[in-house]
Amino acid sequence: MKLHLSGNYREVALGAWAISGLLLLSACSSSTTQPGASPASQEELISGMHVVDCLLPGQVRSLGNQTYLTARRPIKTTASDCNIRGGEYVAYDRADYKSALNVWMPAAKAGDAEAQANVGEIFEKGLGAEPNYEAAAIWYQKAADQGNERGLFNLGTLYEQGLGVKADKLKALNLYRQAWGLPEDSVIFQETARQEQEALRASLQKELAAKETQVRLLKQQIDSLQKKLQSAANASSSAGESGAQRDLRVELESLQQLVASLQSSQQDVATQLASIPEGPKLRTATAKRPSALINTQSSTTEAVTPLMIGDLNFGRYYALIIGNRQYQSLSNLDTPWNDAKELGRILKEMYGFQIELLLDADRFSIMKAINDLHDKLGPNDNLLIYYAGHGNLIDVGDRNTGYWLPVNADPPPNDAFWVPNEYITNHLGRLQAKRILVVADSCYGGLLSNSPGHLFFGNASKTNKLEYIRYKLPRKSRLLLSSGGDKPVIDSGGQGHSVFARELIETLRGNTEVLSAPDLFAAIKQPVTARAQANEFLQEPVYKSIKGAGHEVGDFFFVPRAQ
Description:
Blueprint: E1 23-24, H1 39-49, E2 51-56, E3 60-63, E4 66-69, E5 73-78, H2 79-84, H3 97-109, H4 113-125, H5 133-145, H6 149-161, H7 169-180, H8 187-235, H9 243-275, E6 307-309, E7 312-315, E8 317-323, H10 336-351, E9 354-359, H11 363-372, E10 382-388, E11 391-396, E12 399-404, E13 419-420, H12 421-430, E14 435-441, H13 460-463, H14 465-472, E15 477-482, H15 499-510, E16 515-516, H16 517-534, E17 542-545, E18 557-558
Parallel strand pairs: 8-9, 10-14, 14-15
Antiparallel strand pairs: 1-8, 2-5, 3-4, 6-7, 11-12, 12-13, 15-17, 16-18
Helix pairs in contact: 1-11, 3-4, 4-5, 5-6, 6-7, 7-8, 8-9, 10-15, 15-16
């Protein structure tokens, strides 16, 4: 068993300093050739691949005989593209929130909803400073008021976590519903809202009962102290108050204050409990699932042909699969090649993905493959990124930053050749693809997203599959399925695969229906945890959205070519 730990920049000797990291990303070519550029020219190319907040010059427009120049336009694009288009960006402090705000704030103040959502994300990320969740909530609210799906969703995550606003899961759920475009009487929303209401009601009732018990016990102590105090007063009626009496009186007053505080808190809980609405009325019947959702096929055998089921267009499917096993300066891993190859085969043969497979990729190859996706993907395409290899984290104040480690990565603390999560996230936001799922089977892979494992709409994807797909399919998704969250993971234990890859592969191989990402996660979570425990290791997969990359409560669907 190999385990990779490195939060404090030191290798931990428990097997080897190995991290299994899985990432699926879309591409057209399956070539694994290494670029021949010199290190110096590679660094120049990599610098141009970074996504920046670019301020483009205004456009010269004509209206009748009048010619005028429009205001400058903010966009997110690569540094090289910004240069080519004559734009302006800050080269050396891209991680500084002030420079980013200078680009987006004018448009946000002018009422542009997308710019307002971007400003909210800048405040939430912190970008070189501590996050300002209160400011983030204000700007997300402005975007949400205009119906912006990203603003609605991001505001919902703040309410779910209680960041910058008072925690309110029901309000978060309602914001997610609005971002979805679901009507309030939708079966999907009603089912989940009822579940959340029942869970919240049960939790508050339990809390209320506990406080009632505490108050009752404290009142019993108060009664006992009052009797002791009265007895002491009667025994020393002719003399002044003794020290023992004063101690009893101080203890009595302290308990009375505690009871008053508990009763006030008790009233707050009772008020919150009373404010929970009764469960919504549910429709007594749900739509019958058409057989087309079970027996699916593409119109041709070409991997890049859009997959159609009736009137549902799932688009084209691409995957970039990276398996890093043999490292130049770090310990080698056992399973990433097997994981990457077998997953790629299943995705290609069973699901019609076009695959780009990178084995033992260096930093330039990984970053270039991600950058090149921009020119390959269209607005209704699907992208799966799978990374298997070493991973690491760096402590940055109260937050941690995650990295993928290419085969030319140096050991900590030298991170010069590591691939930062920020690079990946920025490019996910720039890509046109409608639906993107990153699958990371690596230590600290969950650090790619700081989003909560947000509220999902119950078992809606199973009980109301057709309605679920219709609502989810048109909306953008940027999702992360991580093998172990922000914790280390093991490289073996899955009969030639990692424990995570084994369950992922088996689930996709045995699937015969349209499979959503939440259902995939639900299918593998417990088996992965059990396999890890069998190898005397604690590991639990995590599934969440990737905020700051354009997520709009969409989903990712695996569509088998045929049953």
